[in-house]
Structures are given as C-alpha cells and as structure tokens.
Amino acid sequence: MSSTTCLISRGAFLLLAAAVAVALPCAAALQELQLQDAVLIDDVVQEAAQAWYHGRHRRTGVTYPLSLPGSLSGVAADVARFRAGSLRRYGVRRFGEFAVPPGLAVRGQASHLLAVRANLGNLSSVFDEYAASGGYRIASPVLGLTFYGLARRGGTARLEVLVTAAAIRVNFSMAVPALQPGAVPLCMAVALNGSVTVTDVQAGSNTCHVWDQGHFALVLGGAGDGGGVVAEAGEVSKWKLALFGAALGAGGTVLLGLVLVAVLSIQRRKSEVAEMARRAYEEEALRVSMVGHVRAPSAGGSRTTPDALENEYCAAL
After folding, report:
1. Does one domain contain both 207 and 267?
2. Are 30 and 54 part of one and the same domain?
3. How far apart are CA 44 and CA 208, in angstroms?
4. Do both 54 and 116 map to the same domain?
5. Are 222 and 258 within one domain?
6. Is 273 in the same domain as 220?
7. Tens-digit pLDDT profile for the chain (317 aa)?
8. Transmembrane stretches, by residue range (predicted)?
9. Which of 226, 249, 273 finishes a domain?
10. Per the structure, how many domains does the chain have?
11. Residues 136 and 64 in one domain
12. Is 206 within 8 Å of 173 (Cβ atoms)?
C-alpha cells in the first residue's frame, strides 16, 4: 500500500513539474507580449493609483510616487489628488514635467480627481509604431498624463478633460537625453483613443504644448537624419501641393477657354447664317447690277414705252 502511494505521488509530482515547465515559458511570453501593449501599461498604473488612493490619508495637491509591480520596473509614475474646482481655477504650476494652466475642466460629477504622471523609460518603445506610422522615430522617453475620477463602487474611472484656456506644457528638458547637433525635434501627442498629432516644439526649448491628456514624446524625422528630414519632408509636401494646385488651375483655365471658344464659334455661325439669309432675301426681291466695281440693287423697268402708247392710240381711232 505504501509503495503504491509512493508511485502515485511520484507520478503526480512529475506531471506537476512538466506542467510548470510548460507554463513558465508561456507566462514569460505572455508577460512580454502584454508589456508591448500601451493600454495594459495604463491599466496597471491606474490600478496602482487606485490602491494608493484607498490607502492612508493623503494631502490634496501634493505629489506622491506610485509603487508599481516588478513588470513595470522601467516606469516611474507619480500621483496627486486635486479638487476639480481648484484645478480649474488655479491649475498646477508643476507636476513632474507637466504644467497645467488654469481653465482645465472635467466632464462629469467628480468633485475630486487623481492626476497621474508616468515616464515610461525603457518601455517607451511600445509607442514606436505610432511614430513610425508618420515616418518619425522617438527621441525621448514617452511621458503620460492621465486624469481619473472616483467611481461609485470605490474604483477609479478615466475622466474626459477639456482645456479651455492655455495649453498644457510638457517640458522634456529633464527627461530627454542630449540630441544630435542640428537635430530639430517635433512633439508627438498620442491621445487616449490612439490618434496621433505632431506639432512644433516651443522655439529655443524642448517644450511641447498639448490640448488633451495622453502620451507625449519628442520625435525626429527619419533614423540618422536628425531634423533635416522633417523640414525636407515638409518642403516636399508643400511643393507637391503647389504643383497640384498649379496643374488644377491650368486645367481649369484651359477648359474655360475651350468653352468660351465654343460659345463664340456658335454665335459667329449663327450670325453668318442670319447674314446669308438676309442677303438671299434681298437678292431675290431686288436685282443686283454692277455699277463700276460696286454691286448695287436695282428695280426692273416699269415705264410705258412710246411704241405701246402709239399702238393704243391708233386702236382707239
């Protein structure tokens, strides 16, 4: 009986070991796949912010670091609690790399909200596809700014914000590494719905102006070409647009000219036909005689000749 139990236990152990051996690579692959999903990273950060809020009492308007799981060891995040009315009236002078001006409004009934700032660090590559879709490459860590409100069941829900006054400023001076000499970066903003917007940086600085929450980074146009490719691409686009407009205008001018020539030809033809009809009628009513080298209409003779008068007189006698 003991031997049978030992054999069963040994078999169960081998089966368990085999299952673990298969499950560990699958779990590692699944974790690596999940880390490539920007949405999942946001969800993990949101859960951490929710756990922070339900912990011990925190002061309003004070920034606290978030404790993230080991799978996000390359991400640094901060959280702060604000009153919605105070945020709208006064804004936030500095929240990490972000500066929120007065006038930021939130949609909904939230009286308090959580602002979460994240620096994705070595996980910024999850946004490479967003940059590559426009022909750019990321040249800075990706920074995220998201606002959450408190849900009825004690959770948090992402809020929709409305920037009504000045734009939110994102200063990359502390987060971005040294760029190549002559490189002209641009600002890439990835909204929460996945839409991408690329704008110019503030002159003389690495500061971006954004009008919504989301993720932001500095980008360059083309690998190894610095900022020159961005300017060149813009110039090429302008030239293509100018050539297309010129060709369209020339085609319209030619078409208008052809229509005008056709109308004039029809009018001229009608005038010639009317003139020919008038001349035919006049030549039929009046005889045309040549007087020197000039053609002139003349009527037929209608005067009674002397011979006709003499004959009529003799007949009367």
Report:
1. no
2. yes
3. 26
4. yes
5. no
6. no
7. 444 434 333 444 333 344 434 333 433 443 444 445 788 888 899 989 888 888 766 788 889 999 898 888 889 999 999 988 888 899 898 999 999 999 888 877 777 888 999 999 989 989 999 999 889 999 999 999 999 887 666 667 778 888 877 899 999 987 776 676 777 899 999 998 888 999 999 887 889 999 999 999 999 985 444 443 333 334 444 555 666 677 788 888 888 888 888 888 888 888 777 777 666 655 555 565 666 656 666 655 555 555 655 666 566 55
8. 241-266
9. 226
10. 2
11. yes
12. yes
142 within a domain of the structure (yes/no): yes
Q: Do 277 and 220 belong together in one domain?
A: no
Residue at 247 is within a domain: yes
User: Is residue 195 a part of any domain in this protein?
Assistant: yes
Query: Token pair for residue 285?
Result: 């009513």
